[in-house]
Each structure stands twice: as C-alpha cells, then as structure tokens.
Amino acid sequence: MSSTLIELRSGAYYLPSAANVGVIATPKDGAILIDTGSDKSHARRVVEACQVIDLRPRAIITTHHHADHCGGNGYLVRNLNIPVYAPPLESAIVSNTILEPFYLFGGAMPIDALRDKWLMAPASPVAFELEAGTVEINRVELDIIPIPGHAPGMMAVGYEDVCYCVDGLFGPDILEKYGIPFTADVAQQLDSIERLRSADYEMYLPAHGEPTDDIDALAAANCAAIERAIEAVHLACSPAGELSEILARVADLLDLNFENIPKFYLMQTTVAAYLAYLTQEGRVAPWLEDNRLWWHQV
Ligand SMILES: [Zn+2]
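That is the input. Now the predicted structure with zinc ion docked in place:
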C-alpha cells in the first residue's frame, strides 16, 4: 500500500487507501487529518506519509463513526496527544464504539462475530463536537457540511475548492462491487447527495473511490444505485415476507453475497432503512400477524 500523499490542490492532500484519509496542511508544519483509516497500522502509515513532506498531524476530524474511518484514532491520540473533532451524534459512538455492533444487533449486546475491527474500532475520546458551518481549526478555515444518511450525523469537510465528501458519495467501482450502498436513512442520503452536488467545489474526494471534478456524474451514479436498491426492496416485498426473507430476495435480485456475519448484519440494517423509506413513501407497510412482522407492498 502507498505511503505517499497525493496533492489535490495546494495544501490539500490525501493518502489513497481502502478508506482514503484526507490531510490538510496548517501553518507551522501541522496537518489536520480527515478520518484515520481502519487501525493503528493505517494510522502509522498516515504519520509516515505526513513526515515525508514535513507535516505533523495536530488534529483529527472524524466524519462519522464507522470503524474504517476512526480505527486509527486511538493510536494517534495516544501517541501524538492530538484532539479529535467529530459531529455530535457520531461522537457518541466514536467514544463508545460498542454502540455500532450494539445497534446492528438490534439493541442487544452483540455476539462476538460482530465485535471485529471492521465494526468496532478502539474507542477514542472526542475533544470537540463539530457544528455545521465555517469553523477554524489550527488557523485553517473549513466548511463543515452535514451529509446525514449513510451515517446519521455524518459531515463532509470543505477546504478551499476541495470537498472531502467521505461516504456521502461512493466511487463507481465501489457502487458496482457492493450493489447497495450502506445506509441508515435513504431520504437523508438522497438529500445529502443533492447538497454535495450543488455545492461549489472544484474537486471531490470520496473516501472509497478516486477524486473527481465531475460531481454531476458521481452524484448521478450514486442516485442510480440508490434508485435501483429502492426498486429491488420494493419488488422483494411481493409476496409479503419477513425481514430475513426480504433480505434474501434483495440479495438474489442484486446478486449480493454477504460472505460473513458482519456483512449480513450491515445489509440487514440497510434493507431495514429502505423498508422505512418505502413505508414513508406509502409503497410498503408492516403488518403483524401470528407473532410475525410481515412487509408487503401497498
Ligand atoms: Zn461509512
């Protein structure tokens, strides 16, 4: 894996990774990190890459609580003694990482299979909660842009004419690979895509994908994937089925392979989010009978 930062614009860099890490240079050789990757080896790689161009990480912005975005926080906080900034709702989970497998397991204490590093990063303290709007961190002015949906309190970061849009938009290869992008709230996710599309940046960097200056194409690809998933979940509700049945039908329709128990639970939550969306839209409804909750088309 590369340990070389790529410069997007003057002072705005990223380290290409499975989950890209943003790096913004600050006055006096400092750097603000946007997310930290999945674990401490990822975090070490970020520090090394910064050192190559004489930067030292001095602050972390954690955009949302997913473990592939905050897994390196603990190592960096412990070794560099730097603060973490995170959106309010996300910070609750970043500092109590059991909450991710806890909610995926329906609010019961999760089985061991859900406590792996992909779903449960080491907890890290959050020093400052981020508010939407313009903020100054280490003498650098940043735009903090709410983009809820994929995660309930997720925020993107704008710096000069670069937007670190993290998991608000996925690269086309990722959309193709996963078939149905993980989400907690489909309506909010669509609104957030439109917010990013209509924002005034020249360069957009998804966390999973390549940087692009063609925001219209990237937004359209993401909306198309979501629309395809909406129709697949709707179709899967005929005939009526319980959640586990709907999930299996969606997997068949979109040619998904859950591979392991964590992926099964991630997709179960995603399909539940689509069912909630379709319920709001009046296209499906829940129906309780014989101690079973059925989902059916309206
Ligand atoms: Zn994520």
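The mean pLDDT is 96.
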